[in-house]
Amino acid sequence: MIFIDRFLSVYQGWRVLGASFVCAAMALGFTVYVFGIFVVPVSAEFGLSRADANNGMIALQLGSIFMAPLVGRLMDKLSARHIMMMGGVAFGGALMLASRTNSTWFMLLMLTVPLTFGYAACGVLGANTVVVRWFSNRRGRALGILALSTSVGGMLSQPLTAFLIDTFGWRTALFQIGLIATVGFLLMATLVIRNRPTGSERGYQKEFSDPGRETEHDNPADISAGQGRLWTYKELLCSRNFWLLSIGIGLMQASDQALLASQVPHFQDLGFDIKTAALLASVKTFSAIGGKVVVGYLADKVDLRWLFLCVACANIGILAVYMMQPSFAVLLCTVAVLGIAVGGVFPVWTTLISWLFGPRSFGTVMGVMMIITNPLAIIALRVIGVVHDRYDSYVPAFGGFIVIVLIAITLIASLKPPSGDGDEPAIKDAVK
User: Fold this and answer.
1) Total number of domains constituting the chain
2) Does residue 97 fall inside a structural domain?
3) What values do phi and psi take at 54, rounded to 5?
4) How many CA atoms lie less than 13 Å away from 304 in the CB half-sphere?
5) At how many degrees (to 10) do helices 362-391 and 240-269 cross?
6) Cα 86 to chain center, whole Å?
7) Residue 107 lies in a domain
8) CA-to-CA distance for 119 and 115, rounded, in angstroms?
9) What pLDDT is stored for residue 419 in this prediction?
10) What 3-state DSSP class applies to 311?
11) pTM of the model
12) 69-86 pLDDT per residue, tens
């Protein structure tokens, strides 16, 4: 009874954060993190090249271009819980149906439409949108904790998926993953997720009205009102910061997505079996947890542009080591050490959106931003597959991604702080 009383006395935002954490972990863990593990067995069964095998990840990115703005707007206008419930059913159903088809086109259709709806609703977009609404003074910390979900999801899903494929085959493994995801999403959305806090919530005043927690990245209007204003599409498209952030993050995401899809096949090309390759990927994902904790903490205290520089340099380091094709010991040390900083990309990204545009528009901004970021990821996924088919190696592509990350650093460094009301000075006149 004492435990229950203490649990009920906790600010509801922390329980919402926990449920959002689980949802994002499953959405990311069972898609982008495990995709590479399916590449070799699926390619072998259907006779696909590596470039064509990457069409699955391309389908996910392509579908997200259309689904992300829709889901983002729905999250800002309707009940987040209901949207996440529908997303959970769509996500798991798509994977279960894909596991039973012999048509690659039907499989791609499942990945492009229902899976991407669930991926957006229950993943990074949906989870971050909900969490941003429930936190103000500790928003950077909350987003940093939430960012751990992608690493935790990847850390757990990769060895689990490798085991299931090795034991039951890729079709049964995919069906089981879909079933687990459906049940998990529905439980979290039904029992815990709530749309936004009210003034009557225990701990609301402390979270949204304590001036002692204000930081240089907080919008004063956001601190007092808790949500800020709603940006229009026209205002976003006229925003210099929006384009710099979208393209900069898009280039970083392009490198990350291509690496995630290709690192397990790359390890297998080096002679490692599927379990060892998944282990290396899992260690990298595990090490990213520490980075996300640190970056989430620093996001409330230091310049976010410098934080982005740090995590980008870590990405460059990993790409450089992968190009050397070293031994298992060197690879293990590399992913264990540099993965710490790589994990900071998500908390920097989400905190930058909140800082520049405010929490009320978070879903809209992130959804529209994905229209720009996802095509860049699609191009990178196609390119890395084509490069492998031509040179029988991913190494030349890794070198190109180093250049891309350097460009991303330059763009994010060019971001300008917002004015007091959350607008860029030049944008007000442009919109008028």
Assistant:
1) 1
2) yes
3) -70, -5
4) 29
5) 40
6) 20
7) yes
8) 6
9) 65
10) helix
11) 0.71
12) 888 888 888 888 999 999
* Residue that wins the pLDDT comparison between 213 and 384: 384
Matching residue, tokens 């800082």: 355
**319: amino acid identity, one letter:** L
**Ordered alpha helix ranges (H), 123-239:** 124-134, 139-168, 170-191, 204-209, 220-225, 233-237
* 112 contacts: CB under 8 Å, gap ≥ 6: 59, 60, 62, 63
**pLDDT, average across residues 289-305:** 76
Taken as a whole, the chain contains a residue count of 432
At residue 346's C-alpha, the angle toward residues 119 and 94, to 5°, is: 10
Tokens, residue 67: 């689904």
Nearest one of 189, 212, 235, 241 to 354, comparing CA atoms = 241
Taking the mean position of all CA atoms in its chain, how far away is CA 30? 12
* Residue at 214 is within a domain: no
**What is the Cα–Cα distance from 384 to 396, expressed in whole angstroms?**
9
pLDDT of residue 226: 41
Distance CA(224)–CA(21), nearest Å, equals: 26
CB count, 10 Å around CB of 416?
12
Flag whether pLDDT at 215 surpasses 60.
no
Residue with token string 């909350």: 142
Query: Helix, strand or coil for residue 266?
Result: helix
Spatial distance between the Cα atoms of 90 and 228, rounded to a whole number of angstroms: 32
Instruction: Decide which of 176 and 295 is more confident.
Output: 176
Residue 184 lies in a domain: yes
Site of tokens 């000075």: 425
Q: Which of 308, 290, 253 is nearest to 124 (CA)?
A: 253
Determine the distance from the C-alpha atom of residue 79 to the mean position of all C-alpha atoms in its chain, rounded to a whole number.
22
CATH number of the domain within which 250 lies: 1.20.1250.20
